[in-house]
Give the backbone structure.
Amino acid sequence: VHLMESGGGTVQPGGSLTLSCAASGFTFVAYWMSWVRQAPGKPLEWVARISNAGQFPTYEDSVKGRFTISRDNANGTLYLHLTDLKSDGTGMYYCVKGSNGKGKRGQGTQVTVTS
């Protein structure tokens, strides 16, 4: 299993980013996928999940309406589109194989929200 996140960066409050996760080494289309994040000094937090067929996106309450999870099964890529970012959006974001956010993670991509 190999997961490689990208797309992080520094944005101002209210800004947007799109994170990508390139997956390989397993049958991507067969698995639900998740995004989790870890803010400085805080535990890992599940953010969103999506079914193997790209259905049933589900979000943590604080990001509902602002984040969108999607996937491209033909290219083995998972996405997380972040909008209206707030300071509590700062952290390392990881894609995770599976629906509960506790599986294999990539190395992460850093998102920093600052004015």
User: Anything to note?
Assistant: The chain has a mean pLDDT of 96. The first strand starts at residue 2 and ends at 6. The radius of gyration is 13 Å.
